[in-house]
Amino acid sequence: MRFTPATELTTRYKSLQKRLQQHQLDAALLVQNSDLFYFTGSVQQGFYYLPAEGEPVYLVRKDFGRARMECGLQHVLPLASSKQLFAILREQGIALPQKIAMELDVLPVRQYKHYQKLLAPADIVDASPLVREVRAIKSDYEISIMKDCALIMDKVFQRAKDVIAVGRTDWEVLAELEQYAKGEGHQGLIRFRGFNGEAGFGHLFSGSDGAVPTYSDTPLGGLGPNPAVGQGASYKKIAAGEPIILDLVIAYEGYMVDQTRTFSIGKLPDQLSEAYMAMLKVQEKMSEVAKPGVAWGTVYQQCLQLATDMGYKDHFMGASGAQVSFIGHGIGIELDECPFIARGFDQHPLEENMTFAFEPKVVFPGLGALGVENSWRVAAEGVKRLTYSDETLLEL
Amino acid sequence: MRFTPATELTTRYKSLQKRLQQHQLDAALLVQNSDLFYFTGSVQQGFYYLPAEGEPVYLVRKDFGRARMECGLQHVLPLASSKQLFAILREQGIALPQKIAMELDVLPVRQYKHYQKLLAPADIVDASPLVREVRAIKSDYEISIMKDCALIMDKVFQRAKDVIAVGRTDWEVLAELEQYAKGEGHQGLIRFRGFNGEAGFGHLFSGSDGAVPTYSDTPLGGLGPNPAVGQGASYKKIAAGEPIILDLVIAYEGYMVDQTRTFSIGKLPDQLSEAYMAMLKVQEKMSEVAKPGVAWGTVYQQCLQLATDMGYKDHFMGASGAQVSFIGHGIGIELDECPFIARGFDQHPLEENMTFAFEPKVVFPGLGALGVENSWRVAAEGVKRLTYSDETLLEL
């Protein structure tokens, strides 16, 4: 168990402060679990208050003792009720804000209305673009944890070769791999920022199930166990000669990596194994194009163009009619961080130490899905791998 | 795999319509996954539009085919973008609303602002109290699924007796039980409505770990695997002579039950086994008091009073300083539904076919936690059990 070093917390708040100042905001008040973990090192029922100048304060309702133990900030204070917020800040000699930033991308309306009264006459503006910018650039500390995740990930994919078998269901194999991953350090909880986002350990799809579309903004969907879940692995039994695609998220010490590989039991039809090789080429293209200064959307467009040129227009990133408009997504504490290797992000350049998952996939209705995914770090000279498992089309 | 019957969907929308009319609202527009499942039977990226009079329409962006297959409503229509919403409703001959209800307890501010523009000049008001009222009363269909959940739950608790052992960690035993539960039908995904709520399969705490407080509004907390998760099972090894408390949620076909039992390996000190017996008495008290017409808060107060009278004031529902102000919570599609057997709900009467989990627990810092939990249905004559596993203090 690691506690986020105080030096990390300082770098992080200074990065956010710089942005608060640039936008003429007086303070940020953060309340969401992922942001609290990032800025305090300790997820509690509490408020992280960061003035545009000066030091942050973590005001904690529950559990103060845990916060005091886990949090490397100097100012951690108990709070009986959110109503005391400003009174306590005033006692600390902190001037009250006129423009205060909160996470309006995740904060529910009802709570927002409560805070509007509580913080009046201050104006509440959206902190989330600034917070997401700060969080997108990873420190060496964060990247070292993500490399630890990749080690666990590789063990799980090694194990997958032993447990994928004809006649077993996608569902039971995935459940077995999840248990194994937890034994190797996977923390279980996967955080997803977007509304209605319900991310878990990942997916395993054999054959035609890989081509079933769902509500989620993912290239693959899946039937899921029932209509209440409606995505992910189902009770389909694995057969020989069909693509088996395994897409997993490993989270460890609060951070994640995302990886996909494709297996088969016995040989696949040439059409499918060629499609898999094409996805490796899309990945290679990404690794040539992506570097600091290149727009996220440029990486997307060039990779999409290559997939189209190779004849996969109607299969790439979903079957025709259910295609998604991204090939990669930032990753760290949440599964949907910046950058997005996606359509329309033409003014957003990659920066050094951004981390993202890149997942070129093809879908053939009735046959299944194939593809590859790795998690990457943007280095000065180009992208470097975080995940590293064997990428051959794995015939079992 | 079950599809929600059309007759169910009709009863549900008529119940919400009645409330819309009572509150002089023109329509409800629902977008959250749990509510979409309840009112349409199919979780999609879409909008459930219910006028105060007339029939509901499910407008689906992704995946329309899945919605058409799973949803028992007559009017399921494709939607390319939320901007088309009103145009399509107009084509259906639906008058545009002036007051429209959305789920403001969960809808993020940024999306709310988008809908304010989209729905202008209509006023958006909070649908969630009405939706939660409707959902609190379960049909026979829903209760029959919850009974199926209880069957799976009992199997998992039978299994627990075999896998809890000295020297194994709480973490690994829980992971093994989760895999087993998934094999028996548990759907994995647990839905929690509250902001920052991160509920999973449940908890297993041996000895002192049961008394570690956390951020969550739960009587027990736990150290968790790391500060990013900060609740639930940790890597503590199970020892003889300490209380081992297992609190699980089983979800099946979209519905849940919640159950807790207490185990020990070898005999517990009398102080602890007596405390467990006291929690059974609190449960008995609840089953005597709770019936249609009795306020949720009355049940809470009478049970709290009994626990206090038996000498557990500083241990009941958390250790002193970290106690929660509830003993039970409604359960169904989400883990935090109405009714709340909690302080302050003195004007909210229990109604027939409400379902709730009731979880009297005691916490002794340094020693651990003990308690019992079952899921219950309110029948005309009083409460009836949904979960039924052996309640003796289980010496292994």
Automatic annotation (TrEMBL), chains A, B:
Keywords: Coiled coil
Domain Creatinase N-terminal: start-end pairs: 12-137
Domain of life the protein comes from: Bacteria
Residues forming coiled coils: 6-33
Gene3D superfamilies according to UniProt: Creatinase/methionine aminopeptidase superfamily (3.90.230.10), Creatinase/prolidase N-terminal domain (3.40.350.10)
Domain Peptidase M24: 145-378
Pfam families hit by this protein: Creatinase_N, Peptidase_M24
PANTHER family: AMINOPEPTIDASE, XAA-PRO AMINOPEPTIDASE P-RELATED
Protein's UniProt name: Creatinase/Prolidase N-terminal domain-containing protein
Organism: Malonomonas rubra DSM 5091
